[in-house]
Write a structure and sequence with these properties.
four-stranded mixed β-sheet, 7 strands, three-stranded parallel β-sheet
Length: about 170
């Protein structure tokens, strides 16, 4: 019995929260409007509206969309709003920005709806490594949401975690 190996991690009271478990499925699409602009820089309202009305928006069904313009064109706010109105019946979410901003926005929605009361007075490890694209901001948002209710927050893995917060 003296040589028995004891798994202290399995027997600990640590609870691992893995943001990867909350990754919402759905294709992420960067929709660049530069090709809808005259010479890639000038938005001509009539042509822009025509392209928007003729475009097959159904191809984005169930997707997450980041609207952007990759040129230095000055794009009025209404242009992105118009596209979002066309997309609203098909997409899970539409934002203005790049794919990183989109992923952060998706995770913000996830974390805002997360019920953290189950973690009251618990020792929490926020798992650090993931195979899915969890944005860095998601870790900050999660830690901020957990802090008022937990006993402690650590980051990493149970075998090698970094302490971040301890309720005194």
């Amino acid at each position: 019995m003296k040589d028995e190996i004891i798994n202290r991690v399995a027997n600990s009271k640590l609870i691992t929260v893995n943001l990867e478990d909350y990754y919402p499925e759905g294709k992420r699409v960067l929709f660049d409007i530069k090709d809808w602009l005259f010479e890639g820089f000038v938005l001509r309202e009539k042509e822009f509206r025509q392209k928007a009305s003729e475009h097959d928006w159904s191809q984005y069904k169930g997707n997450y969309i980041a609207l952007t313009c990759s040129t230095d064109a000055i794009v009025p706010a209404w242009a992105f709003m118009l596209l979002s109105i066309h997309l609203e019946h098909f997409t899970k979410k539409t934002i203005i920005g790049n794919l990183d901003v989109l992923e952060t926005s998706i995770y913000q929605d996830v974390i805002n709806t997360l019920d953290v009361l189950e973690y009251t007075d618990k020792l929490i490890i926020i798992k650090g490594c993931s195979k899915k694209p969890v944005p860095q901001n998601a870790y900050i948002m999660l830690a901020t949401k957990l802090k008022p209710v937990v006993k402690s927050i650590m980051y990493g893995e149970a075998c090698s975690s970094v302490p971040l917060y301890k309720n005194k």
